[in-house]
Amino acid sequence: LGAVDEALYLFEPEGATSLLESFEAPGWDHDGGLAWSGSLVVEEGEEAGYGGALGAVFSDEGGGGGPPVRKDFRGIAHWASDLRTDGDGRAETSFTVPDTLTRWRLTARGVSAGDAYGQAVLHVRSDLPLRVRTEFPRALVARDEVVLAAVVENDSGEARTVRVDLASSGLDVDGAAGREVRIESGESVRLTWTARAPEAPADAEAVLVVRADGGAGASDAVEARIPIRAHRAEALEMGSRVLSGGELELSFAAAPHAGELRVTVSADLAGAIRAALPYLVDYPYGCVEQTLSRFV
Q1: Strand bridging mode 55-57 / 117-127
Q2: What residues are paired with 168 via a beta bridge?
Q3: Alpha-carbon Rg for the chain in angstroms
Q4: What does the alpha-carbon distance between residue 165 and residue 181 come to, in Å, rounded to a whole number?
Q5: Contact 31, 116 (CB under 8 A)
Q6: Are strands 117-127 and 103-111 parallel, antiparallel or unpaired?
Q7: pLDDT tens for residues 165-208?
Q8: Beta partners for 213?
Q9: I need a surface site. Which of 6, 179, 207, 282 has the fewest CB within 10 A?
């Protein structure tokens, strides 16, 4: 049994061959099969039907503490390869749905010791009546200036006055972090903040949390982590010195904790060529450039 985010199949279609194609010979009449029978447990029963005929709904937790922060966005929710049925042909498993608001594809495949087999697919949707979708960069470099955006969607069935707050650790955010907006049912609002990545001697990480509170039964919170790379560039310096029985002092303008400094010393200019020969000989490709280089 596997539970996978349906969106992943937009990038890579299902690669597993159907059991019917794998085991069934032309004209063979079989009576094997697999059926779904199960239920989803939701904390607030009145919201169990939200989002479709079968859906999982995240509910608020902790009296007055706000919504739980969504930060687990795994694409694969569950994988069980060793389920065994009981005497009635039934098997059960349980797992925690990740925080992604999406449609999940549950695919089950089963075979017996004899000639019975089957497969089935079930779709389950995890959703919220008020949801936050962030538009953040995947990475930043120190001193970068960026626009952070969050889209708040209201699908609660009624207009809401929503309080939206941005909490930031590791970025300097301009202006007020909190906003209050009116969102009609079925509509969305996009909010933006301007932020800057501070100068840092080494790689760091920014932690951002966007919270949206639209009243009872309509709230959401999302956490995102953005790596911040130190402002640096790879540089190569070469030179030659004449040394006769003394010491040679070398100086480099390298920022501490900002990368790696590698020094290679050779007695003659041919040393650099000898170090490159193994790569030339063992290079796994044979285009015209590599063939000519080996010949020369």
Answers
A1: parallel
A2: 208
A3: 29
A4: 11
A5: yes
A6: antiparallel
A7: 999 999 999 988 899 999 999 999 999 999 999 987 778 999 99
A8: 163, 219
A9: 282
Comparing CA positions, the residue from 125, 186, 195 lying closest to residue 152 is: 186
Q: Which residues contact 271 (CB under 8 A, 6 or more apart)?
A: none
CB burial of 91-120 (b: ≥16 within 10 Å; e: otherwise) equals eeeeeebbbbbbbbbbebbbeeeeeebbbe
Q: Which of 160, 134, 290 is nearest to 226 (CA)?
A: 134
pTM for the model stands at 0.68
| Sheet with 204-213, edge to edge strand ranges | 140-141, 219-229, 204-213, 160-169, 178-183
Three-state SS annotation for the chain: CEEEEHHHHHCCCCCCCCHHHHHCCCCCCCCCCCCCCCCCCCCCHHHCCCCCCCEEECCCCCCCCCCCCECCCCCEEEECCCCCCCCCCCCCCCCCCCCCCCEEEEEEEEECCCCCEEEEEEEEEEECCEEEEEECCCCEECCCEEEEEEEEEECCCCCEEEEEEEEEECCEECCCCEEEEEECCCCEEEEEEEEECCCCCCCEEEEEEEEEECCCCCEEEEEEEEEEECCCCCCCCCCCCCCCCCCCCCCCCCCCCCCCCCCCCCCCCHHHHHHHHHHHHHCCCCCHHHHHHHHC
Return d(Cα 173, Cα 171) in angstroms, integer: 6
pLDDT tens for each residue of 57-84: 333 333 345 678 999 999 999 999 888 8
Residues in the chain: 296
Instruction: Measure CA 22 to chain center.
Output: 33
What is the Cα–Cα distance from 108 to 111, expressed in whole angstroms?
Answer: 10
- At 56 the pLDDT is 39
